[in-house]
Amino acid sequence: MIEAGDGPVEAGAVGLVEFAHGVGAEGRGFTRMGGAADRIHNMQPDAVPIPYAGHDRIDARSLAMHCVIADRLRASPELLGIAFDNVQRWSAGAGRSGPYLDRWRQLLALPLEELLALIQEDSETMRAMRQSSPFAGVLLPKERWEIYDAFAVGARDSGGGDDIG
């Protein structure tokens, strides 16, 4: 949950967009559903103009993606195995990412709810950590592209993930 002027907003991608615009779902064409991925799926194209540009857009998209990842991990904690496997595999050729992978190893050892709170945290540290996120493979490709489409520059319903801009 994130706090908005009118109370807490669910911290899925749609909730983050609502929070960024300071409005609730009602006037923006969103349908509140059970999970974050369902809310993104039910978002109307062109319903919300995303005011992000450059790296701010990328950071907002990454945060939205990690909010959906948190929902999936909460529902299926066994998916954490994917992150553990990624860290292990990537550590073999870590290069400059080594310190981030070491930190991810520490974070993955935390209790689940503490880890989920951190990956959804909008702080400078966690924005940097999300750039080397070990959660690749946790989301289904369709869920991932829905988030990319929600934050795409230009076409609102690109159907394949326009990441230009």
Can you describe this structure in just a few lines?
By secondary structure, the chain is mostly helical. It contains eight helices and two strands; from the N terminus they run E-E-H-H-H-H-H-H-H-H.
Determine the mean pLDDT: 73
Distance between the termini: 29 Å
- Strands ordered across the widest β-sheet: 1-2
Tally of helical segments? 8
Contiguous uncertain segments of 5+ residues: 1-14, 16-37, 43-50, 155-165
Global outline: globular
The total domain count is 1
Helical residues, percent: 40-55%
Q: How many strands appear in the DSSP assignment?
A: 2
Instruction: Report the C-alpha radius of gyration, rounded.
Output: 16 Å
- The class by helix and strand makeup works out as mainly alpha
| Beta content | under 5%
**Biggest pleated-sheet summary:** 2 strands, antiparallel
Quaternary state of the chains: single chain
| Secondary-structure element series | EEHHHHHHHH
Layout of helices and strands:
Elements: E1 2-4, E2 7-9, H1 13-21, H2 36-41, H3 54-75, H4 80-91, H5 98-108, H6 112-119, H7 124-130, H8 141-150
Antiparallel strand pairs: 1-2
Helix pairs in contact: 3-6, 3-8, 4-5
